Amino acid sequence: MPDAKVAGTIPAEQAASNPPKDKSDKPSRPLPTDRISFTKQLEILRGYAALVAQGTSSPSNPAMAQIVKLHESTSILAHPFFLNVGLLAKAGTGYTPASEVLAYGKAFSWNPDTAGQKLAPLLRRTWFSDVLLPRLQLGPMDEKAAIEELAVACGAGPKYEGQLKMVLTYMSIAGLIRRDGDTLRAADLGVEPDRPAGPIENGNVPTKETPPPTTRPATVSTSFAHVPEGVLRFNVEVNVDMKEFATWRPDRIAAFWAGIAQVLAAKAAVEEKAGN
Predict the structure, then answer these.
(1) For residue range 49-89, what is the model confidence (pLDDT) as tens digits?
(2) Could you report the per-residue pLDDT of 260-273, keeping only the tens digit for each?
(3) Is the alpha carbon torsion for 129, 131, 137, 141 positive or negative?
(4) Cβ-contact 103, 96 below 8 angstroms
């Protein structure tokens, strides 16, 4: 009589060929899916923006999937990451794209190369920007080192390397980082990309404008004193409001110090001539 099989058991040879998955290296945060190309993920965002522009306040995944020509069971794979970082918000049976996504959709028709910068204000507030941007302000990083930093922050194992690389691509398309081969550098974060403004249109709620903070103008004062012949002693005091200084671009900072150098040189020449 053949041995009776116990219901629910798995033969030993089948168990050996299908070992349980190791969940110890699963990320603690959703990462971009590797089942959909990066270009197609951006197309999904533009699909939602297009539906909102047509008057649908909270488009559904099936409706969006039809526009971007993806099966709805595939397009839905991009949503956990979108929801986690705020690109989309769940609204009933549909999804509401963030104002930055709506701005991105509008800008793409004008200039696809720079439209991604409209996503910068939102992506700058994400966990991966919190990890990398302060580090990149100290100096450039190798891409591999940046991926390792992200992996540690979210607990991802090596098999998620491709998805972590895609996180860097999101930061790059938004203009938060710059790529030089395998080297990553901090982009100029002094000027934030424009946010959508104006009346409520297509679900876009305008942000309240606040007047710029009052800042003190930058000033430079110098004093020179003659000491024994051939020696010039001087003191320089620079007063710049830090709120203003934080918004300066690198080229403006360089021009500021170059201007100080010219003032010092001219004043030194005048006082040296007057002392002779």
Answers:
(1) 999 999 999 999 999 999 999 999 999 999 999 999 999 99
(2) 667 666 666 655 66
(3) negative
(4) no
158: three-class secondary structure by DSSP:
helix
Global pTM reads 0.62
Which among 150, 176, 194, 189 is positioned nearest to 32, based on CA atoms?
150
Q: Are 218 and 239 in contact (CB under 8 A)?
A: yes
Residues β-bridged to residue 184: 141, 179
List CB contacts of 181: < 8 A, sequence separation 6 or more.
Answer: none
CA separation for the pair 42, 101 (Å, rounded): 10
Is residue 218 packed enough to be buried (19+ CB in 10 Å), middle (13-18) or exposed (0-12)? Answer: middle
d(CA 93, CA 152): 34
Rounded distance between C-alpha atoms, residue 151 and residue 156, angstroms: 5
The secondary structure of 227-243 as a DSSP string is -STT-EEEEEEEE--HH
For the chain, the structural domain boundaries read 38-186, 219-275
Rounded to whole angstroms, the Cα distance separating 84 from 31 reads 9
Q: DSSP letters along 40-104, please?
A: HHHHHHHHHHHHHHTT-SS--HHHHHHHHT--HHHHGGGHHHHHHHTSEEEETTEEEE-HHHHHH
Residues 6 or more apart from 261 whose CB is under 8 A from it?
Answer: none
Residues listed for the chain: 276
Q: In whole angstroms, how far apart are CA 122 and each of 99, 129, 152, 203?
A: 9, 10, 22, 17
Which CATH code of 1.20.1280, 2.30.30, 1.10.1740, 1.10.10 fits the domain covering 38-186? 1.10.10
